[in-house]
Each structure stands twice: as structure tokens, then as C-alpha cells.
Amino acid sequence: MKFLKQLGRKFVAATKPLVWRLAEAYDLRINRHCLGSGRHPVVILGGEEQRRNYIPKSVYFNTRSGRVVVGAETVFGEDVCLLTGKHLGRDEAAKAGQPLHAVPDAGRDIVIGRGCYIGSRAILIGPVTVGDYAMVGAGAVVTKDVPPGVFVGGVPARPVRPPAAS
Prior knowledge:
Elements: H1 2-25, E1 36-38, E2 42-44, H2 47-54, E3 60-63, E4 68-70, E5 75-76, E6 81-83, H3 90-96, E7 110-112, E8 117-118, E9 123-125, E10 128-130, E11 135-136, E12 141-142, E13 151-153, E14 158-161
Parallel strand pairs: 1-3, 2-4, 3-6, 4-7, 5-8, 6-9, 7-10, 8-11, 9-12, 11-13
Antiparallel strand pairs: 13-14
């Protein structure tokens, strides 16, 4: 049985690149675990155990306009979206000398501190920093920095509970 499991893992590892290319050719989306969709990196500070045990495969990392940094011991719910990209509105585009709906190349990093919890279907839109041990409620849309230890929820996300007294 152990031999079959090892053989299965080797087969999957060998065929993944082919499956990814086929999916792209057929316009199918495949979640690539802990890999960014864009030009900037995803940095997971908790290592391989963090990736395997605390970040579901359904978490989407858009790194088009900035990097994503995830602190150690941070846990994600299902279907979380971390979005660094944005489209410039009319006034922003004119001010930047860019076409309408242009997407910035950089400057919209998302940084999540240590020991945080990001609830299922939450959306974080960069640039934003989530402080250590903060919690983001399920379905929240985070557009502003979250202080350490604060629980936020809602659309847009607002503090639900202040940090605990030390």
C-alpha cells in the first residue's frame, strides 16, 4: 500500500505541469496551491507545514500589482481572495497619465502578520497590512489596514471587537 501511495505522488508530481498547460489551453482555472497569479511573489513565512496545514488550496493569490506576505501560524478559511491588482478609475488614470482601467505594476502589497485568522470567503484588497493576531471575519472585504489583535468583519471591514487588554 505504501508503494502505491508513493507511486501515485510521483505520477501526480510528474503530470502536474502538463495538466496546468492543458487547463490554460482550454481556459480552465486550476488553483495552484500557494502560488501567485501575477508577477510578484507569495511569501509564506511558516514554511511547508504552514502551506500544507493552514492554507487551503482554494485560497487565491493575485500578485499582479504587489507581493503577498503571510506570517507564520496564520490560518485561512476556504475561498479567501488576496487581490493586489486594481484598475485605475478615470481620475486616477488621468493623474497617472495611464489609460482608463490600467493596472499598476507595483505598490499594492498585502502583508499579513503572525498568528492571524482569515475567515472563509474574505477578500483582502491591497495595499493592506493585517497586524499580528488579528482576525478577519468570513465574507469581510478588507480595504484598510487592520491593527494587531483586532477582529474585523463586514463590507467594508470594520472593527467588531477591540484588541484584548494586556
